[in-house]
Design goal:
This protein is of the alpha+beta class. The protein has helices at residues 65-73, 103-113, 120-130, 137-146, 154-164, 171-175, 179-194; strands at 4-6, 14-17, 22-24, 27-30, 36-39, 42-43, 55-58, 61-64, 82-85, 98-101. It has 7 helices and 10 strands.
Length: 195
């Protein structure tokens, strides 16, 4: 059975259903020439650009329907930033097919379903994004099973943390940097002095 809820920020103007439909609610709005104009209830037609998600325009802003649905129906208790389509189909906006996920969980899911392919660049990017951040054993296991690339060792993460935390590096740390780290550090310092 289809259930409707108000769209956050547009209460009493737009509603979204658990089946992925969005409608404009019947109401009166100010007319450009003064007075009021009646807006009739209607189901909004989703736009679908090539390779993207079904979206609707609300208040002059185009928003993916799956995101509107999740905000309306599923509390985001863990403050996860993204919405994942469990079956990998971008057009399947059934509420049972959606879940809140982190960026890394979304990326891993895409790799597991074959929606994204492993390239040397993606392996490097994933490895780089983990540097200097604590990685739990469960996350390590996920990355191993997804075969995304080399996970930096605890020692490597600690070195990076010590050298780059706070936007400065000690002289001792600079001596121990690899050539690639020195180039990266130099680019970082140049951008900081230019701004």
């Amino acid at each position: 059975m289809e259930e409707w809820k108000d769209v956050e920020g547009y209460e009493n103007q737009y509603q979204v259903s658990n089946l992925g439909r969005v409608k404009s609610i019947e109401r009166y709005v100010r007319h450009n020439y003064g007075g009021k104009k009646k807006v009739y209830e209607k189901i909004l037609k989703p736009a679908l650009a090539s390779g993207s998600y079904p979206s609707v325009s609300i208040g002059g802003k185009t928003t993916p329907i799956h995101r509107i649905m999740m905000v309306a129906f599923v509390p985001n208790k863990e403050n996860k930033r993204e919405v994942n389509h469990i079956d990998g189909c971008k057009t399947n906006n059934n509420l049972d097919n959606l879940e809140w996920v982190t960026t890394s969980e979304n990326r891993l899911h895409a790799f597991r379903l074959g929606l994204q392919k492993h390239t040397e660049q993606s392996r490097k990017r994933t490895s780089e994004s983990l540097k200097g951040h604590p990685v739990s054993e469960s996350t390590r296991a996920k990355f191993r099973t997804a075969n995304i690339g080399k996970i930096p060792s605890e020692e490597t993460r600690e070195k990076i943390r010590k050298t780059l935390t706070g936007g400065h590096a000690t002289e001792e740390a600079k001596k121990n940097m690899s050539e690639a780290q020195k180039r990266k550090w130099k680019r970082y310092r140049e951008t900081r002095t230019l701004g």
